[in-house]
Amino acid sequence: MAGVLNFSQPSLFRPLSGSRQIPRTSFSIRATSESSKTPQTPSSSSTTSTQEKPEPTPFAAPPNFKPPEPKRFAVRPDKALDILGAALALFFRFGTGVFVSGYSASFVSKDEIPPDQYAMEIAGSGFKVKETSKLGPRPEKPIEIYEYERLTARVVFSTYGLPWTTCKLQLSLLSKDIIGTEIALLKDYAMHVQFDTYGSYLVREIVAVLDLDVLYYPCPRNGPNFRPKVLQMGGKKQFPYMVDPNTGVSMYESDNIIKYLVGKYGDGSIPFMLSLGLLTTLTEGFAMIGRLGKGQSYTPAKLPPKPLEVWAYEGSPFCKVVREVLVELELPHLQRSCARGSPKRQILIEKAKHFQVPYLEDPNTGVQMFESADIVEYLRATYAQ
Fold it and tell me: Which CATH superfamily is domain 77-100+141-150+198-383 in?
């Protein structure tokens, strides 16, 4: 997706008459044969019936690890800037992805809702917030999405004197790479800004709105496992890429994915903030700026035999910082979406005796834990190489 935002000097400056496209750097990935789920460990070209299969790499929690006690809405001081940057999306995207489809809320006496049933209590008021929703058909199997987070901005300056010079600056904001620059003294100029977004952010928002469980296969830049798989399945390295095992449908392009999901698992209507074209693209770009460099590039890591399970939703800044690390480490994970109004909030209450997100369940180590900052440290200590 691409959006254009133009800034111009006052009328005494001449408008920009045109711009050249800046060549993008590119690289190729050779596809390898991989299963539709987790890639298999390479084996020898010749085996016998008596040859033992290699044992999977053992995984264990860090030494002396103890899951932290959950603290609702508490921010660890050293992580305050991370949460603040992740929270920018709430402002620029007007809370899209915070509420599920058909969300409604009402105030009721706290005595009307049993203590073991999920409800937000208004402190000191004697009332609780009863939340409901109207969800569409539920898929039998989780949707599969291959994606990562990428934002590119182009800034173009043009001068109009004699001699005149054009300065083009292309920034890959999340990687902080300067692709090409030519610096010149600019007297009379116009400035043109273009965001190129890859749509994964918007797809994650509709996943939260529709309250879908999704098996994410992260595809960070230079990731060795799932980028080749997307090329093999779809024929091109483009993201996001969706596979619906319930219908056999697979597709690229975020707009097409959103239309498919709301048609199949919603009421067919696209949420307002996902249907504004250029404005959607621009607000998506601004929402991502607060987390520059996160969730894009691969950090060498051990690939677990089983996907991790994360209870989260896109609108939460606490969930966002955890998801970024899951992407960087290329860790497959099943996301149990639980935005406001989701009936899965009650399921988590019954499972963990407490509701708070993110909540991580790691079947490879048996660890179950709350607290985003501690989850990030756990993931790096357990899987990063």
Answer: Glutaredoxin (3.40.30.10)
